[in-house]
Design goal:
Helix content: 10-25%
Distance between the termini: 9 Å
CATH superfamily: Lipoprotein localisation LolA/LolB/LppX
Oligomer: single chain
Shape: globular
């Protein structure tokens, strides 16, 4: 289980790195001739509202080490992300994100990272609700809230290019939270194929979405692959979902106990530095 640290880092980095519309949805036949504005409206209209979600999840780390764990993810809209990883029925790791704090807990080695969500999101302006949207394959505009509008400030829609049958949405901003988010949207299903997030002074974070499938909250990807660099380490992690087993608005949420006596609290920086150190774990 020494590679458990990489899974915790991957989940943590995915955080550091991510309402239904009343417009009429555009049919697949209409998409072929639809304008980029109509395609945007159709994509947003496919985002069904939800309050709580639970679903099976599998985390697969490809780099810098190879390891995988299965578990379950829980979300409460705008207020909670809870991912519980288990081996042989026993909980071995937890990521618990609230509107105030982020907890990444390694129960095997009694280690925990506790960070303020404000500090972690200070450089991007991405909110907890927007992170949930990224995890579900939904477009966001940092600083503009979860609800999307093509009239939002600093949003640009680009028609299909000759070498890409989809279209592109670009959101960018300067000032306190400078960034550029580029969303490539597939032409056939009109859902996001990839996201690239660029922040000055940092390497680009990219996410690819594959195998879209219908569930209770609309379309979600069956896999989300994230590629980024943290503390000079290249990290590639994949989240795999089971859309057919998504449960929405059931109210079933797990309990969480803050790490107490017996746990060693370490910083995110120390966790990143430990990537090459087997002594810490």
């Amino acid at each position: 289980m020494k590679n458990l640290k990489y899974l915790i880092i991957s989940a943590f980095c995915i955080f550091v790195a991510s309402c239904g519309s009343q417009r009429r949805a555009v049919s697949p036949e209409e998409l072929a001739t639809a304008s980029v504005e109509q395609r945007f409206d159709a994509m947003v209209a496919s985002y069904k509202p939800w309050h709580t979600i639970s679903m099976p999840v599998r985390v697969e780390l490809k780099s810098p080490s190879k390891v995988s764990l299965s578990g379950r993810a829980y979300m409460v809209s705008d207020s909670l992300i809870h991912v519980s990883m288990r081996v042989l029925g026993f909980e071995v790791a937890v990521m618990h994100v609230t509107a105030d704090s982020v907890y990444c807990v390694d129960k095997i080695h009694k280690l925990a990272v506790i960070e303020s969500i404000d500090r972690l999101s200070a450089s991007t302006g991405i909110t907890l609700g927007q992170l949930q949207s990224i995890m579900l394959g939904r477009a966001i505009v940092p600083g503009e809230g979860v609800k999307l509008s093509r009239k939002a400030k600093n949003v640009k829609l680009t028609s299909p290019a000759a070498d890409f049958d989809g279209w592109t949405m670009t959101a960018s901003a300067k000032g306190a939270h400078p960034y550029e988010c580029v969303f490539n949207v597939e032409g056939e299903n009109n859902q996001i194929a990839s996201i690239a997030v660029s922040i000055p002074g940092r390497k680009t974070v990219s996410c690819d979405y594959n195998d879209w499938s219908a569930c209770e909250i609309g379309q979600i990807p069956q896999s989300l692959s994230c590629d980024f660099t943290a503390s000079s380490k290249h990290i590639n992690a994949v989240l795999k979902y089971t859309p057919s087993q998504v449960k929405a608005d059931t109210g079933d949420m797990p309990s969480f106990k803050r790490p107490g006596k017996g746990y060693r609290i370490i910083s995110a920086v120390d966790l990143f530095k430990s990537l090459s150190s087997s002594s810490l774990f």
